[in-house]
């Protein structure tokens, strides 16, 4: 099994041929490691867990049990897409858990961002552990750990201070002991994407923009309410659709909508219409430590503003955040 240090002579995976070679090696390693036992994987639909799932489906088929937890904070159509790709197309052994109510009930009235993150992270473990306990003969847990995660934990162990907690999944409870399967832990993100494409995953999934573990929960600012969350999800979907149409999705590293808990006065159908603002954030960065603002043509901004204010219930203004990081972080919470 591979250790936690990337060998100096390990070739960077930049082509399909190199990816195919890596995939063949990992398939052999995984088969040797797990034999005929079952492997559990939390499949969020992000690049890393999706690539691990596709790799393990090739290696061990139905011995892999994927659990997709919908915490109610996913973007529009995201969970449906995970089911479509993995269950319908790749015939994965996939358990779908709609835990929306569990999460939103716990989050009701909670406005502190770090508390929100902690609640979401802890409840994710609870839901996942509940599913794990229902299964028999599972000895292994697969994870989409990648090399920057390992480098990051080395830094954390050296006591470097973080601005936000950023952890999505903590440790599982004591009664659940698994041996880890981490087939992509020595890869950098660009290599994971090349491997994902070689595995036949859809381009949009492999090149998807980063999405924080707490999901829309940290973009529906302050205490989350279902109506404001629904407005955020719709506005975000419109932004993504318009960015896709004009090619900006390929050029901008991360782009999303934030909806704060404030209302302003507007007018609609000749009547007073109080609504929330939808705030657009579109940034470019190499490593998420600093970020610059992407210039978006006014024609695109007008189109997005027009659609959001017409199509999204409860939103009556569209604003653009022009703050680089630092001083603003990428997410608002
Ligand atoms: P910030 O807001 O710290 O974000 O500038 C940097 C990058 O990290 C993402 N982010 C998170 N990712 N869990 C995650 O998995 C989190 O709690 C979290 N908070 C921020 C953010 O989307 C950006 O890509």
Short description:
With 333 residues, the chain is of the alpha/beta class.
**What order do the SSEs take from the amino end to the carboxyl end, as H and E?**
HEHEHEHHEHEHHHHEEEEHE
Residue ranges: pLDDT <50 for 5 or more in a row? none
- Report strand %: 15-25%
- Return the average pLDDT rounded to an integer: 95
Compute the separation of the termini in Å: 39 Å
**Subunit organisation of the chains:** single chain
Bound molecule types:
xanthosine-5'-monophosphate
- The tally of strands reads 10
User: Main beta sheet, described?
Assistant: 5 strands, parallel
Helix proportion: 40-55%
Question: What is the global morphology?
Answer: globular
Rg, Cα atoms, Å: 21 Å
* Structural class computed from helices and strand pairing: alpha/beta
Number of helices: 11
Strand order of the largest sheet: 3-2-1-4-5
Descriptive labels:
single chain; 333 residues; alpha/beta; 5-stranded mixed beta sheet; 11 helices; 10 strands; globular; binds xanthosine-5'-monophosphate
């Amino acid at each position: 099994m591979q250790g936690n240090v990337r060998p100096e002579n390990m070739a960077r995976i930049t082509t399909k041929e190199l990816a195919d070679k890596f995939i063949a090696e990992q398939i052999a390693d995984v088969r040797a490691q797990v034999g005929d036992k079952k492997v559990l994987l939390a499949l969020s639909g992000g690049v890393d867990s999706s690539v691990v799932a596709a790799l393990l489906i090739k290696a061990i088929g139905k011995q892999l049990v994927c659990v997709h937890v919908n915490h109610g904070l996913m973007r529009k159509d995201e969970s449906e897409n995970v089911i479509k790709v993995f269950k319908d197309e790749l015939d994965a052994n996939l358990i779908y858990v709609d835990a929306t109510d569990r999460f939103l009930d716990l989050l009701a009235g909670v406005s502190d961002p770090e508390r929100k993150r902690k609640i979401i992270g802890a409840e994710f473990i609870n839901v996942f552990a509940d599913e794990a306990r229902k299964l028999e003969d599972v000895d292994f847990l697969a994870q989409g750990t990648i090399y920057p995660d390992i480098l990051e934990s080395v830094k954390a162990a050296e006591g470097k201070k973080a601005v936000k907690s950023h952890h999505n999944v903590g440790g599982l409870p004591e009664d659940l002991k698994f041996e880890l399967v981490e087939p992509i832990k020595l890869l950098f993100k660009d290599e994971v994407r090349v491997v994902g494409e070689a595995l036949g995953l859809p381009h949009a999934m492999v090149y998807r923009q980063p999405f924080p573990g707490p999901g829309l929960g940290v973009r529906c600012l302050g205490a989350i309410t279902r109506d404001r969350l629904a407005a955020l999800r719709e506005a975000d979907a419109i932004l993504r659709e318009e960015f896709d149409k004009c090619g900006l999705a390929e050029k901008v590293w991360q782009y999303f909508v934030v909806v704060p808990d404030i209302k302003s006065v507007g007018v609609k159908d000749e009547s007073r219409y109080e609504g929330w603002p939808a705030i657009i954030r579109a940034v470019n960065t190499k490593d998420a430590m600093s970020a610059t603002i992407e210039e978006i043509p006014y024609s695109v901004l007008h189109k997005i503003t027009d659609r959001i204010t017409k199509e999204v219930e409860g939103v009556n203004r569209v604003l653009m955040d022009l703050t680089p990081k630092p001083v603003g972080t990428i997410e608002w919470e």
